[in-house]
């Protein structure tokens, strides 16, 4: 289901990029996929309360401290990169893959405690 959601987001981003003749939709889809991955990882490892918080904090932190002198984004601030950026696409793909793997193979934090009570 998560992979399908990511694929639908990318398909919509590609279609909107074609229709609007602007790469912003593709960048938005790429960022959505990366944020979904971050949310999954954090939620599985730290608990369900922290996934949405991480998704909110990542773009804020990137905007606050993500630009190098000269206005270029650092490599780790993938949401700030231009739409065709290979670094940003790779980071988003790595995040969603890690998020799906984490959601598939890790027991959510607190679930083991709830199951034993």
Describe the model.
This protein is mostly helical. It is built from 5 helices and no strands. Helix 1 runs antiparallel to helix 2 and helix 2 crosses helix 3. It is globular, with a radius of gyration of 16 Å.
> Care to count the β-strands?
0
Largest sheet: none
Low-pLDDT sequence parts: none
Mean pLDDT: 88
Helical run tally: 5
N-to-C CA distance: 30 Å
Write the layout of secondary structure elements.
Layout: H1 2-20, H2 24-46, H3 50-65, H4 86-105, H5 111-116
Brief summary:
The protein contains 5 helices and no strands. By secondary structure, the chain is mainly alpha-helical.
Keywords:
mainly alpha, 117 residues, globular, 5 helices
């Amino acid at each position: 289901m998560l992979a399908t959601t990511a694929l639908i987001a990318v398909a919509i981003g590609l279609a909107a990029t074609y229709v609007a003749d602007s790469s912003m939709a593709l960048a938005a889809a790429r960022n959505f996929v990366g944020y979904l991955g971050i949310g999954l990882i954090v939620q599985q490892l730290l608990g369900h309360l922290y996934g949405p918080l991480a998704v909110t904090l990542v773009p804020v932190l990137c905007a606050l401290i993500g630009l190098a002198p000269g206005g270029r984004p650092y490599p780790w601030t993938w949401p700030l990169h231009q739409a065709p950026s290979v670094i940003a696409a790779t980071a988003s793909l790595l995040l969603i893959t890690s998020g799906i793997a984490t959601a598939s193979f890790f027991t959510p934090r607190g679930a083991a405690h709830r199951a034993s009570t």
